[in-house]
Write a structure and sequence with these properties.
With 143 residues, the protein is of the alpha+beta class. Helix content is 11%, strand content 28%. It contains three helices and eight strands. Strands 1, 2, 3, 4, 5, 6, 7 and 8 form an eight-stranded mixed β-sheet that branches. The longest helix has 7 residues. The N and C termini lie far apart (118 Å).
């Protein structure tokens, strides 16, 4: 019998089952709402075998949420962070409506202030002297 390179006889007799092949996290495409604000684009979240949800680092940026501390889950060349154990974040996942509603404390969001560099504080200038005049024109039409 001809040998198949790279495969043992045991692997040929016992091919992997569908459950073993899909032992990775489940992908969920969910509508997202944070503090009452709905987002137009759904998010691709991951759900592990214990039911924990993970969001990508890109989604955290889009939602302006600070990513949690800790080592992210690496999936298809992207970093995913756990949502269930994230302090200051409450989750309500509805699998029927495919929607995730989150309530986040203000401290969980990125700062929305920016330092403007290169600006010079200029003294206010007085407007130049000038004016305008209003004229009222009345027309009387007669026959």
């Amino acid at each position: 019998a001809a040998a198949t390179p790279g495969l043992s006889d045991r692997a040929l007799l016992n091919p992997p089952t569908a459950q073993a092949a899909s032992s990775g996290p489940n992908e969920l495409l969910l509508a997202i709402e944070i503090n009452g604000q709905s987002f137009a684009e759904p998010a691709l979240l991951l759900q592990d075998t214990q039911g924990k949800l993970y969001a990508s680092a890109e989604d955290f940026k889009r939602w302006r949420l600070l990513p949690p501390a800790g080592v992210p889950l690496r999936y298809q060349d992207a970093d995913y962070f756990g949502l269930n154990d994230y302090a200051g974040l409450q989750l309500n996942y509805d699998p029927v409506k495919l929607k995730l509603v989150m309530q986040a404390e203000a401290s969980r969001f990125e700062s929305s202030t920016e330092v403007l560099e290169g600006t010079v504080n200029k003294a206010p200038t007085l407007p130049s002297f000038g004016g305008f005049q209003l004229r009222t024109v009345g027309l009387i039409c007669g026959q």
